[in-house]
Amino acid sequence: MKLKHILSGILLMSAMAFVSCKGKPKDMIVNKWKATDISGGDMGSMPDSLKKSMISGISIEFTKDGKYMANTGSSSDNGTYTLAEDGKSLSMTGKNGTAEESTVEEITKSKLVIVDKASSARIVMEPK
Amino acid sequence: MGLFSTIAEAAQTQIQAPYTDALNAAGINLPDVKTSLENGVLTVTGTVPDGETAEKAVAALKATPGVTSVTNLLEVEDLTDKNIFMTVATKSSNLNIRKGPGTEHEIVGKAEHGAKVQLIKKMFNGWYFIHDADGQEGFCSTDYLAEIPAEGAPVQ
């Protein structure tokens, strides 16, 4: 009986450790990200050399207070964001008040993939 | 703007750069003009002050590396707010409505002889982008369009 309790305890602790390691989407997005790939939308017709140069300049930081700061190397934007509880959709409202809705394809501590609903542009990012 | 809009704007600036440079080198400053390249065909849109500038711009753009031909959709004037209407003045046949301002462009519709059309844009070569009562839109030659006499004007 005592052994059963110990085993249950170990299982419970392992499960908790697994959950905390995986993390919540809202916590995982809070980071400085840099682009590793862009495709779709206007990027689809872009020559590879230009695309590489664009990718190297793109970064975005999501902060815990719901703000973001995006940079493309030649221009920047900042505003607020909302990530759905399930981590499947992301809404960003820029400084001019325009909202952008995105689908989150993947979110982990080491990878963020979002697709713009309006243009189908897709961006893959990793921590900066 | 948002992340994607910011990226798209930066991408557009980078994509347009070689064409903007080509225009500037030819002494033409047209901030309004936009280009898009597909399979070597460069489509150029926007507003130019006159037909001569449009011709110069196309010549400069044709010489840009990677461009095999240019589809010139440059307009001289937006006439939408002027509410100018004309009638189709063919002998009896229907008037071809084309995808671009020239007979080399595909026919996308027909306007009946005598039909009333609205002039939307005056193009670089005197063709017009028109809109008819059936909702058809496209380019027509001015050779087959006649002015509608103003009310009260003497009948010729």
Q: What does this protein look like?
A:
The complex is a heterodimer of chains A (128) and B (156). In chain A, 27% of the residues lie in helices and 41% in strands. In chain A, strands 1-2-3-4-5-6-7-8 form an eight-stranded antiparallel beta barrel. Mean pLDDT of chain A is 85; it is low at 16-21. Chain A is of the alpha+beta class and 128 residues long. Chain B is of the alpha+beta class. Helix content of chain B is 22%, strand content 35%. In chain B, the strands form two sheets. In chain B, strands 1, 2, 3, 4, 7, 8, 9 and 10 form an eight-stranded mixed sheet that branches. Chain B has a two-stranded antiparallel sheet with strand order 5-6. The model of chain B is unreliable at 152-156 (pLDDT under 50). Chains A and B meet through helix 3, strand 4, strand 5 and strand 6 of A and helix 1 and strand 1 of B.
Write the layout of secondary structure elements.
The complex is a heterodimer of chains A (128) and B (156).
Chain A: H1 2-22, H2 25-28, E1 31-39, H3 48-57, E2 59-62, E3 67-71, E4 76-83, E5 89-94, E6 99-107, E7 112-116, E8 122-127
Chain B: H1 3-25, E1 34-38, E2 41-47, H2 51-62, E3 69-78, E4 85-88, E5 95-98, E6 107-111, E7 116-123, E8 128-132, E9 137-140, E10 145-147
Parallel strand pairs in B: 2-3
Antiparallel strand pairs in B: 1-2, 3-7, 4-7, 4-10, 5-6, 7-8, 8-9
Q: Most extensive interface, residues per chain? A: A-B, 36 and 18 residues
SSE-based structural type of chain B = alpha+beta
Count, helices of chain B: 2
Biggest sheet strand order of chain A reads 1-2-3-4-5-6-7-8
Order of helices and strands of chain B: HEEHEEEEEEEE
What's the oligomerization state?
heterodimer
What value does the average pLDDT of chain B take?
87
Helix content of chain A: 25-40%
Task: Tell me the total number of β-strands of chain B.
Answer: 10
Q: In whole angstroms, how far apart are the ends of chain B?
A: 57 Å
Give the low-pLDDT segments of chain B.
152-156
Termini gap of chain A:
50 Å
Percent strand of chain A equals 35-45%
The gross shape of chain B turns out to be elongated
Proportion of helical residues of chain B: 10-25%
Uncertain spans of chain A, ≥5 residues at pLDDT below 50?
A: 16-21
Proportion of beta-strand residues of chain B: 35-45%
Question: How do the SSEs of chain A run, as a string of H and E?
Answer: HHEHEEEEEEE
Computed over alpha carbons, the radius of gyration of chain A is 19 Å
What summary fits the major beta sheet of chain B? 8 strands, mixed
